[in-house]
């Protein structure tokens, strides 16, 4: 088999990330790189009504409330979740636009390669 007949794998992206997009995605990836934060994001997204009270989230972990609050703050700072205070509790919801950016990054990886 000659080198001319060997095909390389198909590219996974249409074009490389810009510096700004790479920095933004790195922030998002850092935020979800922690198992607790990834689980929190999953719990909020799958909660009935699309939002979850912090009081519902803390019971699922063997962590203190301040530790859970720290993880929620990291997710919120990254723009992955948003919160609304109602009385003494904060209710969190997913920010779809931001989460979709992560999905768009990995979507080409899920498509079968055409060779």
UniProtKB/TrEMBL annotation:
Gene3D superfamilies (UniProt xref): Winged helix-like DNA-binding domain superfamily/Winged helix DNA-binding domain
Residue span(s) of domain HTH arsR-type: 17-114
Residues making up the signal peptide according to the UniProt record: none
PANTHER family: ARSENICAL RESISTANCE OPERON REPRESSOR (PTHR33154:SF18), TRANSCRIPTIONAL REGULATOR, ARSR FAMILY (PTHR33154)
TM spans (from-to): none
Name the UniProt record assigns to this protein: Transcriptional regulator
Top-rank lineage group of the source organism: Bacteria
UniProt keyword Cytoplasm, yes or no: no
Record key words, sorted: DNA-binding, Transcription, Transcription regulation
Organism per entry: Nonomuraea aridisoli
UniProt KW tRNA-binding keyword: no
GO MF annotation, one: DNA-binding transcription factor activity
InterPro entries: ArsR-like_HTH, ArsR_HTH, HTH_ArsR_DNA-bd_dom, HTH_MetalResp_TranReg, WH-like_DNA-bd_sf, WH_DNA-bd_sf
